[in-house]
Amino acid sequence: MAAFVGNYFVVALISNFIPKEKIAFFSTRKEANVAKIPVVLVDPLHQLVIRLNFAPVKVFLYLSSPTGKPLLEQWKSVASVLEELLKQFFTPHQTHEALALKLHLLACCLRRAGEFYDSECSKPEVEPAVKQKEPVICLEPLIKQFLRGGDPHGLPMGISFSLQFHAHLV
């Protein structure tokens, strides 16, 4: 009904919706071989999954925000939960391809941001003499790398390389 009146935002939200209970399921698992996340990560992960704009730069900005920072700090368990969700939506009989692709791209972005966070951002910094008034975005160099245009067509090189790299993995 929403599509008939031109409210495509609502249509996209409905078709990409994942109930919070599906994510909360991974915080209460007792099995050893299934991914598990702390309960405090359920809300930020749900907000990340239901976002309509899952471009890598937008995901990195969300992970740099105070809401998404806990996801970045425990990125390995969160990425494994996203992969488990991907397996649920990418079954032979009931495939939700759009949602499966979205979860795969979110897991890839989270993995890339987590690796960058572990190598660059988690290093102990020297206390600056003057406090900065603007909040420091830890993933700013990674965001700049993804936005930098370099080929003759002006396409962002980081995004292009990331998509080509992940296409070879599949």
Short description:
This protein is mainly α. It has nine helices and no strands.
Protein traits:
about 170 residues, mainly alpha, single chain
How would you describe this structure to a colleague?
The termini are far apart. The chain has one domain. The chain has nine helices and no strands. It is mostly helical and 170 residues long. The longest helix has 25 residues. 57% of the residues lie in helices and 0% in strands.
Q: How many individual domains?
A: 1
Largest sheet geometry: none
SS summary, helix count: 9
Mean pLDDT: 80
Structural class: mainly alpha
Strand content: under 5%
Topology, element by element:
Layout: H1 8-15, H2 20-24, H3 42-50, H4 56-64, H5 69-73, H6 75-89, H7 97-121, H8 140-147, H9 157-169
Helix pairs in contact: 4-7, 4-8, 6-7
